[in-house]
Amino acid sequence: MDLGIRGKRALVCASSKGLGLGCAEALAEAGVDLVMNARGAEALEAAAADIRARFGVDVVTVACDVTTAEGQEKLLSAAEGVDILVNNAGGPPPGLWSDWERDDFIAALDANMLTPITLMKAMMPGMIEKGWGRVVNITSQSVKAPIAVLGLSNSARAGLTGYVAGTARQVAEHGVIINNILPGIHDTDRALSLDTGVSQQQGIDLTQARANREATIPARRYGTRQEFGATCAFLCSQHAGFIVGQNILLDGGATNATL
Ligand code: NAP
Predict the structure, then answer these.
(1) Bridge partners for 182 per DSSP
(2) Which atom of ligand 1 is nearest to the CA of 19?
(3) What's a single GO MF annotation on this record (predicted)?
């Protein structure tokens, strides 16, 4: 399917690895020029070089922390006038409800709620002016069904989801379409670190920790970054103009719900 976005330009935050990289690759395959970002320059440059070589698109890299004001300033200047924004950042650490203090919540809100809101607020006026734009926020399955140890994530992402629900309906008339993708477990470094934690806690090896988790998923496997990226690229495509403010769950059926 032709996604109809060849020649457009996208900022994909936190995209040297994992789900962000999957989105960058799928957009590049559709002919979209990219601004890619991560904190670590080495992996970022390697990912950008690989994408340039495979898809022949223009890729600008900005090595910075997207959750800081300085990082956001750098990104906004490199990505001025983009048509597509994919919001992403690392997830907050796991823990117990009684351990989290105000500062822990502020950090989680900054990274996973206020950062995407800041970037949307800065970039959507340009999209509105052009009468076309796409925003995809990478959130989490935990928005739909809480993961108790990820209480900081549950809280911050719920806040972002509420903001998007209203805002998406305010900007849609200008051709600017905002949606969220909710990943369940995907085969990335984040999943590896979650499984490592489980294996240490339960005294089992890593392969067993993964197998135990896979057994809880109706698809009996982890998602791939390529599948995730393909959904993201579709939501950024010409065909997605009537999908407004939705929360698309990619979890292999793990969330047991009818709707
Ligand atoms: P990942 O494999 O660990 O990749 C994270 C990517 O983001 C890397 O490129 C990393 O590069 C970059 N990054 C992290 N923090 C950043 C920051 N502050 N500024 C700029 N770049 C940053 O993680 P992932 O699995 O793709 O997860 C992406 C998001 O989806 C996370 O918020 C995660 O909580 C959420 N999620 C993931 C899963 C899953 O199963 N994978 C499930 C539910 C939710 P640097 O470290 O070099 O900055």
Answers:
(1) 249
(2) 26
(3) 3-oxoacyl-[acyl-carrier-protein] reductase (NADPH) activity
